[in-house]
Amino acid sequence: MDSLTNTGWQEADLLAARLSSDGVKAFYVSPLGRARDTASVTLDRMDREAEILPWLREFNAPIVRDGVETIAWDWLPAEWTAIPEFYDRNLWHTVPVMRQGNVFEEYSKVTSGLDDVLRAHGYEREGEIYRAVHANNDTLVFFCHFGVECVMLSHLLGISPMILWHGFCAAPASITTLITEERREGAGAFRAVSLGDTSHLYAAGLKPSLSARFCEMYRNADERHD
Questions:
Q1: Vertex 59, ends 62 and 208: CA angle to 5°?
Q2: pLDDT in tens, 17-67
Q3: Disulfide-capable partner of 29 in 50, 57, 111, 129 (CB 3.0 to 4.6 Å)?
Q4: Strand residues in 9-164 grouped as ranges (E)
Q5: pLDDT for 92-109, tens place per residue?
Q6: In a domain, 32, yes or no
């Protein structure tokens, strides 16, 4: 289902209340329905528009494991942690199953698209940092999905996406915030100050959805196992 539930619309409204207090330079949104619905509440409240970016859709690079097609970023802990290359930001995509699935090609489409956006806003990638061609305090908002979010964070922070996909969690309507730091003139770097922040939901007495998580204990039959 590519649309919001009643709870999802409530979460989107609380998200909009938080974002509308910020001075946002530009909004970008995934072409998928859930992200566009979530964004619409904020955009309507602020009387703004967002640019739809095809590469912001949920990360879509299927792989085949044990004869079954599956997404590249959902592995059991005992499986992915047994492969040392997955911990290395330069080697994770060289694992045979990833190469066969053209995962890095899709990863590169996302990172290239992200760099295009950042370049348009004054930050041009040079190696592992960004040259501040036009340094600024602008705020950009991306309405997207967890899998592609981790790809962007991987690129900006220099971390293997496997660690982000499996070691972090971002609930629906949560906020991840990155800032730029320019400790030497012209040399910008990104730093995360929060990932998956749901304080705006808690402040309204609404608990975050568990849909992004798996069971806390295996015997918890009412929580998602796979």
A1: 120
A2: 999 877 899 999 999 999 999 999 999 999 999 999 999 999 999 999 989
A3: 50
A4: 26-29, 51-52, 63-65, 68-70, 123-126, 129-132, 140-143
A5: 999 999 999 899 999 999
A6: yes
- Strand, helix or coil for residue 40: helix
Q: Number of structural domains, the chain?
A: 1
Residue with tokens 């959902």: 74
Q: What is the CATH number of the domain that holds 103?
A: 3.40.50.1240
Pairing of strands 187-197, 129-132: antiparallel
Residues 6+ apart with CB under 8 A from 139: 22, 23, 24, 25
- In this prediction, residue 130 has a pLDDT band, given cuts at 50, 70 and 90, of very high
Residue 155 lies in a domain: yes
Looking at residue 223, its pLDDT comes to 81
Is residue 215 domain-resident? no
DSSP code per residue over 144-200:
--HHHHHHHHHHHHT--HHHHHHH----TT-EEEEEEEEEETTEEEEEEEEEEE-HH
Determine the structural domain holding residue 75 and report its residue range.
Answer: 6-203
Q: Please tell me the distance from the alpha carbon of residue 147 to that of residue 210, in angstroms, as a whole number.
A: 16
